[in-house]
């Protein structure tokens, strides 16, 4: 039978009650439970994976609950660190991420907290160092900002200044001010939400109106976008630019550029800059009202479906559980007065970076930001910040791999030589007949590691963490050896506050994403129509526990479809679990997939937009390899329309018919580029990551006779993928025809 839903307890309860952690409990005994000294010592005793030994943990990381399997389902798996109950938070005295941040502020008030590269006003260039604000300064500023937002919004709503029944929206790249806003919202139990540059103005309007957000904080570079959507925002009354604005700029914004003066509730609309709002808050000094476990921390909108995105309501209990899970298996890396630094690279609008933001600010760590929001700046800033760890998506890791290989070849090291040398790390090198490692090989390898680390700014790096999309095992093995760092792969969703599985570095060769966290339990569900039988070890991943969300914002039907009566959330991911309890994702249940940069693609939406927007095509099969960052496709063309359009520039096409025309297009990159440019220019409703980067054309490539479409013209995706396998591989080998793949 399925066991009753387990009661939760805290990580400190686990250590105090489980005999396996007796040595840790003994070291905690001098301190009053719940005191700052006790909590600091408990952090120092983590990760729990070292009790009683790390080797034991590696041997068995998650285990099935006896007699928990049911018809159509595999057994329930729990992490061996806490097999009886799931952990809901670090300690009962820390019911929110904000309480963890306050603890860090008390323990390490002078520690570096958030840092940026300053801009030299004389040269207009960024300086080659980071300047940080301390924990106590960031805490003070967050209170002032929160008080200022509360004052401005509530005065316009004619409500008491301490009313916190509204949502704050953020439209910005990663920045110190983004995190400051996040902390300000938490200080006053305000829910926040993020708008996405990649999803277009319609989505921003939808999120703003659905959440009825009266406050929008935005970066200066997005002012024109804010002005363009303002007319359609029903509830906004306070617009705050996180960058400095002159008095003249603010005057222009509040007069000639303000497209409307009042919202639909009759409340006045006004522009401000962040420094103004902080000054207002410093004057009003509204007392803080920190959140509890059930306070909604954020509403994170996912791009994982066709149409408008769903908002995942994430209470603080999800965040504290995710944080407790991370603390249980990651070393906080603090030694004496030295604390870890991270570069904030992944978008804060996505939940994985938020999870590790909470990890950083709960352990006294420092977070640095890119000097300008573009991936091309990553290596430059890594070389200056020299962080101890970085969270990256797979496509950045593959670019690191390419950069290292190019550098090695420039040094005159042949491919065969470095592949042989890097086939295993120095620490794992087998001894020779005398029991000693080869000093020359080890010394050369260590020198190589120093050079490759320096090349990418990873001189001090202890580990790299990746998630959000699959990554090649060969890439992980190569980087682990070339950089001499731990590589860890995670798995999770917005609905699980990002990572609920994290693999250990020694397990990268398995291709797994690790076991379920001690904050969540999981099982597999049979997917009969796809041939997956959970009783045989493969099925759809279901999860439940304190780290799992409880509903979609204002979407009760969607919530009901996703979470069953026993609390199991169906992820849509198909996976297998090995004998050590490690999860490996192998497929998707639904017709959308994730690219290497973490973006979800709904292929039916993409195909429908191409067909409805461009008269040159009659069929489109969009395909994405999850190890790649772009789409390719098989396209059915309208013969006469294509000749009429392309024939003006490429006259040789005009007399061709049928397969001759198809052959001419497919075998001429210039013609294919021109056709692709025409197709993409007609699809204004597609984002860049949704557009095709290379194509193979045919007159009617998808037919019922080939069993590639149904009689109602729906594509049979698995069969189409197999049928066009060689073609799709060739398109990826040929590469993107619309952009250059560079680091």
Automatic annotation (TrEMBL):
InterPro entries: AMP-binding_CS, AMP-dep_synth/lig_dom, ANL_N_sf. It holds the Pfam family AMP-binding. Residues 129-553 form the AMP-dependent synthetase/ligase domain. The keyword ATP-binding applies. PROSITE patterns: AMP_BINDING. One of its GO terms (molecular function) is long-chain fatty acid-CoA ligase activity. GO terms for cellular component: endoplasmic reticulum; membrane. SUPFAM superfamilies: Acetyl-CoA synthetase-like. Keywords: ATP-binding, Nucleotide-binding. PANTHER family: AMP-BINDING DOMAIN-CONTAINING PROTEIN-RELATED (PTHR43272:SF33), LONG-CHAIN-FATTY-ACID--COA LIGASE (PTHR43272). This is AMP-dependent synthetase/ligase domain-containing protein.
